[in-house]
Amino acid sequence: MPRPVQAQPSPGATAALSLQATLQQAEALSFSDTAQAEALLRGALAQARALRDAASEGLALVILSSVYFYNSRYAEATQANEQARALARAHNLPLIEARALSGLGINARVQGEFGQAMEHYLEALRLTQLSGDQENQMRILINIGVLRMNIGEYDLALEAQQQASELALGLGHRVGHSIATVNTVVSYHHLGRYDEAVALAAEHLPVLHELKLRQNEAVMQAYVTHALVARGEPARAAELARQTIPMARDTGNREHLVNLQSGYGRALHQLGQLDAAHEQLRSALDTARAYDLKVQERTLLAYLGEVCAARGAWEDAYHYAQAEQSLNHELHQQDNERRAKVLGVQMQLELHKREAEAERRRNLELSEVNTALQQAQDHLAYRAAHDPLTGLANRAHFQAETERLLRQGGAHLGILFLDLDRFKQINDTLGHDAGDELLQQVGQRLTRQVRRGDLVARMGGDEFTLLLPGLRQAADAERVARKMLRALAAPFTVQGRELHVTASIGVAVSPQDGHDVTTLQKHADVAMYRAKQEGKNDVRTFSAPMAEEASERAELERDLREALGQQAFTLHYQPQVDLDTGTLRGFEALLRWQHPVQGAVPPAKFIPVAEESGLIVPLGTWVLREACRQAAAWQRRQPGVTVSVNVSPVQFNKQHFTATVREALDAAGLPARCLVLELTERTVLQDVAAATRQLERLRALGVRISLDDFGTGQSSLGLLRHIPIDDLKIDRSFLPQPGDTAPAQRKASALIATLITLGQALQLHVVGEGVETGEQRDLLAGLGCPAAQGYHLGRPMPAAQAEALLTPAQAPGDPARAAPAPVPPRPPTRE
Question: Per the CB 3.0–4.6 Å rule, which of 218, 399, 410, 531 could disulfide with 540?
Fold first, then answer.
């Protein structure tokens, strides 16, 4: 009996099967051997085009884009994804379009376009929901988690990666589960959960080896290296980094090569191998700069500063610290802008939620995993639009809603800017938990007072805003504001205590007070501050005169002239204390003006006017004479006590300034060594050569020169080397503040130590200023700073009170006066 003849596949079908096998092989290799994967994909592209197979061509382009991405070829990756997206749209291939959009999002994220990245992810998510494509939904969740890490939202990033991991397990997608697991390790590291990071990495490493995911292994081991350093295991970290760096170089991913070198350098630092550590970190810094990896550059600058400090290379340490501070400022601004863009884009999640819910009702085949994804989207949408403490709308939501209503036009739109009065005092006395509870109750009480359609938001701290659409007349906004004040007048019960809280409210109404969100918020803010300036617990509606500062300054200048003629100024004296003994070393003379109508006018308000008008010259002369007179009188009580006088740039640049100083000393009979002239960087930097000549003339008189606010402007170490000065004042901005994170406090301490060492090396007397807490005082003392001043050590006070701090000259044989009395510390409060 003849055997039946089996049907043979056509040449076209055979070619199509071969093409699919090639694409599967290339996608697997894209994680381990990008060069071989790229070669396979170029052949697959040519074959797909010859077969006119649009789906295979689009898939080849998408996989090729990932190969480009892993090799840091971001422009080529973007181009390949755009080609794939255009092809998918032309041939109605939603799954290919979703993958291309996801790839575009990844490239946008790497290039810092976080808002655009989120837009791509959300559109890809919409397409996958419509088609029920759970595999690509998993990929997008992973990408959203990575984006969250980039903007510092590590808790949300961890949530997204864990959700993606669960989804991958349900699908049996081992590569997707592996990527999500590696990203979970990264999230653990950023959250400081180092033990969990190391344990999970050790558990997952065999899977990476089995799947040959060398890219992922390099990423994971880089963060394990840092985690080991943080756990105090530098030898183990160094060995791991040494073994993994060649793999990172082979895969071509510069970002994670830099990360590995960074961890290697840190480990070598802990091991005391400072030269090797410096070499690794410097190499990593060069790579980061070459590939514009700004975040890594900032971290490396900090590590290099620490290594240089440990090596005793203080000038290099200072340069790295300055570079880090500058880059940190730049990145901080970028981060804020990126977060704002991401939050704005995430408002679209509400729309995606409704679409997904409608699709769920229409399609009963959606799995429980897709339901979990939808819940995650709901959570992300709520977090994107609401303040986590009070549940009110957050800043991004408030601004987006205001913009929407302004575009609609029509009736008056009111904005109220509300700031609680003396909230800091509640936080300081009762603690932050009580403060948080009070903020929650304030938010609830405000919400109960508004209409449906009004919006209450918390902008941050103790600031709230209210959006009032559809007002019949502008005056209605102020009536609502006063209603809010009455609502807040009733006492609050917080932790069993009865608290009375007041607020200051500013009002702005469109269109007369502005046509855009920024202008309206600014004007409401101006009005709120006017309410605070005029006594608090009140409402002020914005008006044009509030913005007319020119007329106010003219009036202030006139009053300054009158006050100068009437000698209506006084000096207060803030003590400068020896941190070793606690005894008084001298005073800084601070100008005070008691206006007959306005009361005490802050120096920050009238000094700029005096400088612009030239009145600072006669005013500064009076300050010099009065300070010298008072210091001379004090010499009888405590010989050698000094007085410091701030010198304006306008005053300093006058040719006769040296003569003015000499005349003040002669008239008072004050020894020149007891006078300290304080100048800011700005004063010296206007003309360094001329300033140097002036300083030399002043020092020839015998007075001391102090450089104030060093490091806060554009100065450099070269400035200290060339200008003749005696004292260096550490600005208050360098001191760690209450609430700073531990890393921030360590950086502040390192920078202060550098400045103190630098000053001592240059034989300068170092003074720390702005000391407002005992912790700040102890830090300066522990770092070897000889003297300090600030509210904690003594507030500015009239001469009569200051005199009480003087140490009387010791009478011969008087044991009771053998040791000078220390200056008592003052509480860290402000007037």
Answer: 531
